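Category: protein sequence paired with discrete backbone structure
Discipline: computational structural biology
Format: plain text, a pair of labelled lines
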Amino acid sequence: MKEISPSKTYRVLEPGPIVLVSTMDNGKPNVMTMGFHMMIRHDPPLIGCVIGSWDHIYQALRKTGECVIAVPGLDLAETAVDVGNCSGDRVDKLQRFGLKTRPAKDVSAPLITDCLANIECVVVDGRLVEPYNLFILGAKRLWVNEACKEGRMLHHLGDGIFTVDGGRLDLKERMVKWRHLP
């Protein structure tokens, strides 16, 4: 075994697929790419998201308390990387990258219709924002795009290296302790 810096821990405990986060602030939509998130609870569904104070969306999320988390498929891999490489304070990223949107039902942030799924969220706990940039979001609505042909998701391992979802392994019959969960 070879020891490496603990600062690289995120490369082995990758939290989930790369997502796009959209907000609306003063009538202006914005989007960013995010890789640091986690499910916290099933019911009610809570999601933890780390969004740094250096990100333009950070201020909009603090101010409005709402966002949309959109899950892109592999077909949007290059777009997701490109969205993450520029700032919404200088460019309209939705327009620049041709992302299609539609209004959400419960939040002002737009749904990104090119994505596999969209989750309308509101900040339910901001106590960890100051020390850790950690927003606790409550999922209000979940939209799934059944028209997407590409269903594989993208997972960031650091330094621009990604893994892609592949096949599935169905072990439902062995999950006897968790059958009560939806």
User: Anything to note?
Assistant: The chain is about 15% helix and 35% strand. Residues 16-178 form a domain with the Pnp Oxidase; Chain A fold (CATH 2.30.110.10).
